[in-house]
Amino acid sequence: MTSPETSGPADTLFIAVAQLNPTVGDVAGNLALARRTAASARDAGADLVVFPELFISGYPPEDLVLKPAFQQACRAAIETLADESVDGPALLIGSPWVDEGRLHNSVLLLEEGRISAIRHKVDLPNYGVFDEKRVFAAGPLPGPIPFRGVRLGVPICEDIWGPDVVECLTETGAEILIVPNGSPYRRSVYAERENTVVARVVESNLPLLYVNQVGGQDELVFDGASFALNPDRFLALQFPGFMERVRLSRWQRFENGWKCLGANMADRIEGDQADYAACVVGLRDYVNKNRFPGVVLGLSGGIDSALVAAMAVDALGPERVHCIMLPYRYTSQESRSDAAAVAEALAVRYDIVPIAAAVEGVEATLAPLFAGTRRDVTEENLQSRVRGALLMSVSNKFGSLVLTTGNKSEMSTGYATLYGDMNGGFNPVKDLYKSEVFRLARLRNRWKPADALGPDGLVIPERVIDKAPTAELAEGQKDEDSLPPYAELDAILERLVEREEPVAKVITDGFDAQTVTRVERLLNTAEYKRRQAAPGVKVTGRNFGRGRRYPVTNRFSEG
Ligand SMILES: Nc1ncnc2c1ncn2[C@@H]1O[C@H](COP(=O)(O)OP(=O)(O)OC[C@H]2O[C@@H]([n+]3cccc(C(=O)O)c3)[C@H](O)[C@@H]2O)[C@@H](O)[C@H]1O
Ligand SMILES: Nc1ncnc2c1ncn2[C@@H]1O[C@H](COP(=O)(O)OP(=O)(O)OP(=O)(O)O)[C@@H](O)[C@H]1O
Ligand SMILES: NC(=O)CC[C@H](N)C(=O)O
């Protein structure tokens, strides 16, 4: 342990890494969480506690941060924490900060009852899901922050994704790099972060502590997975993904510089497991941070609603999940028993609400208007719309949030009914293609996240996974009557959506020309539906929502 009185630069530092889940806009709650963390870090003997990016406001605060009252609330919270820092530990904490009339994304060092240093983010990300240039002004290139005789370089998140800020910090004498982050999960993120951090560590020859937030914020999920890398690229610290954790790390000065000696090593889940955990955390935080008592969903006996039900139970526990089977004349016996089997395996409340009277009532009401017309997709969609209306009524009556279940293949092609099965407030599988829904359902039958509240073992019966997908809106209907087989559809969509490949390239790579052209047309025309769709968890590099923003009115087509 070091203290300011033991003069001379410190040779050892105890740094508490606060991988926490703040809530956007909840300044009082975030302040309370920072205060509790500071108190327990003090008891553990920390010199310094490091919080993630913009901890006091929550990240990303979007246009909320433009409100002067919000800026003032964040500033007041920081000043309170600074006042309280008299007995230590020091806090390195992120907040929006107005400096000379410009609003910055900043980090502040609070110690000995005052704000002893402020640094502003230099590189404001403005691509993909990020819009920081819209709300923040860039800061000047920073110098290190002196702390107990040690020069701390504090680049903020995107500041390490290029070489300039770290180069400047190194040239001005930084000895340790400490990076507060608001870095959201996407499948490729671990490789991206590793490449970035290794590059900065090699260029600077400095150890780097990467502190990321955890938790869901609308469609983004932050995975945490904080870590420390020493100059020899040795991974000295690894926190788990998708859960809060606060631990002390020990840093030591050697002849050739500083090193992290921390021993907190956790397994970091990846691949499908990480996707599943992201969906669960995103759903849990959306429901809890928006203060819903629970969720309700239509359970059809199909795989999409079965997977959503499993995710909901893992997120919230069975007592907060209500599943309703809404059968009509096209609902098979198989679907009825499969839905019941899923509900039983998940131990959720399960009701059966037949929709015939409502569907037939609406049909009779419309009969004079529709006289002389043929039955078509209108009557099919009516079934979906009646289900949507009934689920929304349950939501109104009991306050539960309706979960909608359309996967990314359906969202891409418009294969869902507007104001029908698209009704709902949140969609945990929105960014998963149908082929991935199958994979995650199989995965959930043999594995669940460590903090999942659902039962172990088989929760989605094999038959639900193996049978041919159907909307059951007409006799004998199968999805593949209207859409290309999912394996082919998803491979084409992945190229058009995630990779933004030209149609001509997808065709020369061996996909059927007519199918590719049709899929491109469906993708373009369905934008109007996606604009009205509920938000859902982002897991890919490019999700519908913040990640891919196309015009609705759009005459361009490559086909
Ligand atoms: N550019 C635009 N901007 C704004 N609104 C626009 C629009 N173009 C059409 N519209 C409106 O949208 C309506 C058409 O959309 P909508 O009413 O949804 O109907 P529509 O897309 O014609 O039909 C729904 C499709 O989804 C399938 N489905 C439904 C339910 C579940 C599943 C499943 O397996 O999960 C599949 C169903 O088999 C059918 O192929 C038009 O009548 C018009 O009112
Ligand atoms: N009979 C039903 N009872 C309850 N909900 C239903 C029923 N049919 C459809 N739904 C709801 O509408 C959504 C769209 O379902 P649909 O069967 O049309 O296609 P799907 O995309 O294959 O979904 P799933 O795999 O869940 O069946 C379902 O996920 C479910 O939430
Ligand atoms: N908050 C940020 O600056 C995030 C941007 C960064 N490239 C990331 O996702 O990790």
UniProtKB/TrEMBL annotation:
Q: Which parts of the sequence bind ATP?
A: G298, L299, S300, G301, G302, I303, D304, S305, T405
Q: Which GO terms describe its molecular function?
A: ATP binding; glutaminase activity; NAD+ synthase (glutamine-hydrolyzing) activity; NAD+ synthase activity; nitrilase activity
Q: InterPro entries from the entry?
A: C-N_Hydrolase (IPR003010), C-N_Hydrolase_sf (IPR036526), Gln-dep_NAD_synthase (IPR014445), NAD/GMP_synthase (IPR022310), NAD_synthase (IPR003694), Nitrilase/CN_hydratase_CS (IPR000132), Rossmann-like_a/b/a_fold (IPR014729)
> What EC number(s) does its UniProt record assign?
6.3.5.1
User: Where does the chain bind deamido-NAD(+)?
Assistant: N381, E410, K529
Chain segments carrying region Disordered: 539-559
Named in its record, the pathway it takes part in is: Cofactor biosynthesis; NAD(+) biosynthesis; NAD(+) from deamido-NAD(+) (L-Gln route): step 1/1
Which positions bind L-glutamine? Y127, S183
Q: What is this protein called?
A: Glutamine-dependent NAD(+) synthetase
Q: Which organism is it from?
A: Xanthobacter dioxanivorans
